[in-house]
Amino acid sequence: MKLKFKRCIEELGIKPILARVRHPQTNGKIEKWFDTYQRFRGEFESFEEFVQWYNKRPHGALKLEQLESPQEAFWNRLPVEAKFRIGVRLFGW
In 10 A of CB 85, how many CB atoms? Predict the structure, then answer.
């Protein structure tokens, strides 16, 4: 893992989950993401547009009754300290 990336996720309180080599069962979430990308990519002008749509749409694996999107789930579960560090980095608070 690259040092800069490792430092960044540590500062944000994110713990990486590494998958075993040649063991697709441990890669289920990313495999599902790629499946969704393959099915919908033709409907978007760019990869960035797809990512925006993907992160802002409700997901069945999340709080569907509240129509929680991945972006909302991420921010709702992120510790306050990490949110503050992100604000400092982005806006120099």
Answer: 17
Write down the pTM of the prediction: 0.51
Q: Is residue 8 part of a domain?
A: no
Number of neighbouring beta carbons within 10 Å of residue 17 = 7
**Residue 6 lies inside a defined structural domain of this protein:** no
Q: What is the pLDDT of residues 27-75, one digit of tens each?
A: 887 888 889 999 999 999 999 999 989 888 877 666 666 777 777 878 8
Q: pLDDT band at residue 1, thresholds of 50, 70 and 90?
A: low
CA distances (Å), origin 2, targets 10, 33, 37: 12, 23, 26
Residue 62 belongs to domain spanning: 27-91
> Residue 30: which of 64, 1, 54 has the closest Cα?
54
Asked if residue 7 is part of any domain, the answer here is no
| Residues 83 and 74: beta-carbon distance below 8 Å | no
Q: How many domains does the chain have?
A: 1
pLDDT value at residue 37: 94
